């Protein structure tokens, strides 16, 4: 192999890397995090869960919907196999129920456009979380954010501890 061949390989690798880098920079991306939160609402301090939607990308993110996911049933092995045959992918959220925040009277501010480097905050009080997880299989919770192109971004699993009996 001569010098020309090495230069051709170098050029192909470099142009592929630059194309991939440009693709990743131009695509909007959001991060969704659930955290324990305390806020003062109408003069009273309430505990609950905060949903933080962050936009670290260089593009504006257009968010249309925010929902909660919680485990409702325990899927069986046949449910997994049936899902893999039907959709040709391994299910990661089989048995989880989707519940829109608007069903619980929570103002999420959607639709919203989040500028680059900015974030959006939604507070959900503890009473709403308890009512949501009353029929759930466990007290685990996820948040899902949907953008204008129907792409979903999920938070990590958040473990909601049960309130002590004397506080209810």
Question: Brief description of this entry?
Answer:
The chain has helices spanning 3-26, 77-87, 126-132, and strands spanning 31-41, 44-54, 61-71, 96-100, 112-114, 119-125, 140-147, 152-154, 158-159. The chain has 168 residues and is α+β, with helices and mostly antiparallel strands.
Q: Would you mind describing this structure in some detail?
A:
The chain has one domain: Immunoglobulin-like, CATH 2.60.40. 25% of the residues lie in helices and 36% in strands. It has 3 helices and 9 strands, in the order αβββαβββαβββ. It has helices at residues 3-26, 77-87, 126-132; strands at 31-41, 44-54, 61-71, 96-100, 112-114, 119-125, 140-147, 152-154, 158-159.
CATH third-level topology: Immunoglobulin-like
Number of folding domains?
1
What's the order of the H and E elements? HEEEHEEEHEEE
Q: Total helix count? A: 3
In which range does the helix fraction lie?
Answer: 25-40%
For the record, give the distance between the C-alpha atoms at the N and C termini, rounded to a whole number: 77 Å
Provide the gyration radius in Å. Answer: 22 Å
Structural class by sheet pairing and helices:
alpha+beta
From the spread of the alpha carbons, the general shape counts as extended
CATH class: Mainly Beta
- Care to count the β-strands? 9
User: Quick check: average pLDDT?
Assistant: 89
User: Which CATH-level-2 architecture?
Assistant: Sandwich
* Sheet with most strands: 6 strands, antiparallel
Strand fraction equals 35-45%
Low-pLDDT ranges: none
